[in-house]
Amino acid sequence: MKIIQVAGHANSGKTTFISTLIPVLKLRGRVGVIKHLGDHDYHLDEGKDTTIFFENGADISAGIDSCKSVVTLNSNDLDDLLLFFKNKGIDFAIIEGFKTRDFPKIIIGDLPSDTSALQNPSVDQVISSLSSFEDY
Fold first, then answer.
1. What is the DSSP secondary structure assignment for residue 135, as one 8-state letter?
2. Which residues of 70-94 are buried (b: 16+ CB within 10 A; e: fewer)?
3. Whose CA is closest to 21, among 12, 10, 32?
4. Distance CA 92, CA 88 (A)
């Protein structure tokens, strides 16, 4: 599984860039995205069964509706989620944020980085540079 990390300051265009990268990567394999929520927590719907299961210690709590599945892991460790992705057959794991991790990064904007593989690239530049990114 290829790790493609995208980092930059808030409102630099990371999400927009990732949104254009996803469909192009999907032509080459399965894509998963991990978003570092940073300064806010994701809220589970209070009183819902999947929330109750999570709050009572389930390692994984999941729900399936007519269109999708929602999975909550009882972990905030990036490596746990990357392993989950790998075990689910994801070919490309895009990570938004986690600036301090040492993966080769795509930098959006002017964020200084010692592990920058590309800065403000086009999607085509990312695709032609996939070998620059780590395998997990």
1. B
2. eebeeeeebeebbebbbeeebebbb
3. 32
4. 11
- Give the H or E element holding residue 3: strand 2-7
Share of the chain residues as helix, strand and coil, in percent rounded to the nearest 5: 30, 25, 45
Amino acid 53 reads F
Q: CA 74, CA 62: separation in Å to the nearest integer?
A: 11
DSSP secondary structure code for residue 75 in this structure = -
User: If the chain, 136 residues long, is cut into consecutive pieces of 10 residues, what is the mean pLDDT of each piece?
Assistant: 95 96 98 86 84 91 92 91 95 93 94 90 97 94
Confidence at residue 100, expressed as pLDDT on a 0 to 100 scale: 86
Distance, CA of 29 to CA of 92 (rounded, Å): 7
Instruction: Supply the pLDDT for residue 9.
Output: 92
Task: Using DSSP, state whether 105 is helix, strand or coil.
Answer: strand
CB 42 within 8 A of CB 35: no
| Burial tier of 102 (Cβ tally within 10 Å: 0-12, 13-18, 19+) | exposed
User: Which pLDDT score, from 0 to 100, does residue 114 have?
Assistant: 84
